[in-house]
Amino acid sequence: MRKIAVVGIEGGIGREVLNLLAEQGVGSADVAALEARSALGNTLSYGEEDEIDVLGLDNFDFAQVKTVVFAGSAELTKRYMAQAQKAGVKIIDASGYSIGNPDVPMILAGVNDDCLDKSHGMAAVPSAGTAQLLLPLRAVAQKYRIKRLVVSTYASASAYGRAGMDELFNQTRKIFMNETLADDQTVFHKQIAFNVIPHLGDFIGEETSAEWAFNAETKQILGGDVKVHANCAVVPAFVGMAMYVNVECEHEIDADEARAEIKKTKGVVVFDKQTDGGYVTLHDTQGEDGVYVSRLRQDTSVDNGISFWCAADAERAAGARNIIEVWKLLTTK
Predict the structure, then answer these.
(1) DSSP 3-state percent helix, strand, coil across the chain (nearest 5)
(2) 174, exposed or middle or buried, with CB in 10 Å at 0-12, 13-18, 19+?
(3) Regarding the domain delimited by 132-314, which CATH topology (the fold level of the hierarchy) does it fall under?
(4) Cβ proximity of 144 and 249 under 8 Å
């Protein structure tokens, strides 16, 4: 029996989960890579030397694995989750399908691990963006009690997968060649090259699905009384996510004390020098394992407030890494 199956390996999160599994020594024989449809003989690299078959979901027997990670679309999860549940496997939903479901705890490792006690073998994890937002705030949330979060995010084209990255590349090349962009403007509704688009996800009334998810996922993890306002944009970068975060707490908080607490957090790196270049940019984080915090200072516009800049290769350092941590926790239950 294989240890783990990953559904949705063509997306960034699914592929990064496989990368981390390989790096942590999980053998290829213990891993199943799944897509909705996969041609016979389709393979992908695993680790430095191995390859694994990419299997189709329609004919896959979930009883062959102990745990399945749904990292594809919510629609794909909806279609196949019942089969996994019937097979009695443990489930980690990283697709967003279980957002708001009171019967499925949403887990950010190190923050609300105790909620796994009532998981009944099934847990959800937040999006990579929400995980990146909340990882530096683990200790702050516990010590100072967060009252309100305002987050402005700047996502790379990888938020739309390979198609988004290809469109950014093709548009950039065509602009330098003085060619029309008419055939390379299908993923984004505006030109993405040399531009910033204030739109990530699908619109749900006045906000987008990404903005809604920041709100809903944070409330599931920290508690429903936390107020969240998110503004999400896409920038012409290929990998990662950056964000400015304003935090308002119930208890008095000092920026220097908050910095000391954040420095203690596993997986978070504080690089914050009040000088030119003394901060981390989106480009610096590509392929890195850490969530980087810079520009941390007092927010004097509110009582008990701080603000900071945060950058990460979000799919790897926040999203996939949290999935691996939750998987380890879930296997002990």
Answers:
(1) 35, 25, 40
(2) middle
(3) Dihydrodipicolinate Reductase; domain 2 (3.30.360)
(4) yes
Whole-number Cα distances in Å, 74 to 9, 18, 71, 96, 155: 14, 19, 9, 6, 20
Domain spans in the chain, listed from the N-terminal domain onward: 2-125+320-331, 132-314
Q: Range with the lowest mean pLDDT among 30-44, 179-193, 253-267, 287-301?
A: 30-44
Q: What pLDDT score was predicted for residue 34?
A: 92
The rounded distance, in Å, linking the Cα atoms of 161 and 141 is 32
Name the class of domain 2-125+320-331: alpha beta
- φ and ψ of 144, to 5 deg: -115, -10
Least confident of 100-104, 150-154, 201-205, 291-295: 100-104
pLDDT tier for residue 36 given thresholds of 50, 70 and 90 = confident
| pLDDT at 39 exceeding the cut of 70 | no
One DSSP character per residue, 186-253 reads SSSSS--TT--BS--S-EETTEEHHHHHHHHHHHHHH-TT-EEEEEEEE-S-SS-EEEEEEEEESS--
